[in-house]
Amino acid sequence: MAGEDDSSNPMMEEMLYANGGDELSSSSSPSSSRKNRPIISGEQLDIEAYAGLYSGRTKIMRLLFIADHCDNAGMQTEALRMAYDEIKRGENTQLFREVVKKIDGRLGPEYGMDNVWCESIDRKAELRKEKLESELNSYRTNLIKESIRMGYNDFGEFYYTHGALGEAFKSYVRTRDYCTTSKHIIQMCLSAILVSIEMGQFTHVTNYVSKAEQTPESLEPSIVGKLRCAAGLAHLEAKKYKLAARKFLEVGPDIGNSYSDVIAPQDVATYGGLCALASFDRAELKNKVIDNINFRNFLELVPELRELINDFYSSHYASCLEYLGNLKQNLLLDIHLHDHIEMLYDQIRNKALIQYTLPFVSVDMRMMADAFKTSVAGLEKELEALITDNQIQARIDSHNKILYARHADQRNATFQRVLQNGGEFDQDVRSMLLRANLLKHEYNLRNSRKL
After folding, report:
1. The pTM is what?
2. Looking at residue 127, what is its pLDDT?
3. Closest to 314 (Cα-Cα) out of 369, 343, 356
4. How far apart are CA 345 and CA 368, in angstroms?
5. Do residues 339 and 66 make contact, with C-beta atoms less than 8 angstroms apart?
6. Measured distance between the N- and C-terminal CA atoms of the chain, rounded to whole angstroms
């Protein structure tokens, strides 16, 4: 195991260099320091570096999400500018019109409506669609299964490229009846998962992940990583944080940047780490996160998250919560985490409060408030809520500001256990004596003779 721990992973070293690894970045030039700092950090989000982690439609949607949810006008216009440029490299005229409407002339005439480009793309799309329909009809006439499958697959890619996600999903699913190998099934499932994630239909994601996992003979390590990422996103969307954490923690380093049209390696670390903090106990956090060699490679890409997890496990709660506070604004700009940040943060803070009180018979709330960088009144309200919810077995001396633990009466509990075990032993002995007497007097033989 030591050999595995010390061995370097070329893919992870490359991403670490691109995202601010300590050892590798120490020799970089000042001009590249901005590029090499961690993407998710307490500083203002570097939109250019962040967008560089993704490709395809998800890159555009994440930029638009930032533009819609960011309060900084400069970041908004930068995100819209990058989204505009990215869309012009593709063929989605509908999305282009939406972005131009959002820009509303703020970026000057260069980023205005380009009707010539739109008309050109739409004309090409019509011709392409007619060609695909003609080819598909020909394949159907000849009844060539593989050609029909490829025809529907081409239609799916065509619709996806032009933003018709519903039609793309239908086309991809139609290839299922014409799949002749397990690799075809995997390809169909991955395409359906990609479109379902973009549409926000995570029920479909779960279904097609399960279907893909039923053909294990064709599952390469990178494909397994993609399926686990997709399943993790589905569980995250359903607020099943423990299941989401487990899926993200199972992702291997083989995935690299191969799933950039859905998720980046930094996201695997962020989503998995936060979900684990919110839902795992100390033993699970140690075994499945901190001591997980594969996941440690992902955590190296987000150093602040790595540090806050270690601080949480080491009971340095003030430092942990400070890291969380610094990261919050940037995490709120994440398209998948935005709706869950408040709940995850509340669960992490509540776990920290519970773990802080567990070892003690009594706790000075003034000292505890200092440890959590909060006021005594605010802490008292938080503790009241946890006691009411039966998460902390304690009572509060509001006058002296002391929390007293209500530990179970160990002496009484021991006596009760002894009495219970004694009763069970007495019943077992009586049963054995009864059986012995029945055998001694051959009662079972007499009954069999009567029959």
Report:
1. 0.77
2. 94
3. 356
4. 19
5. no
6. 67
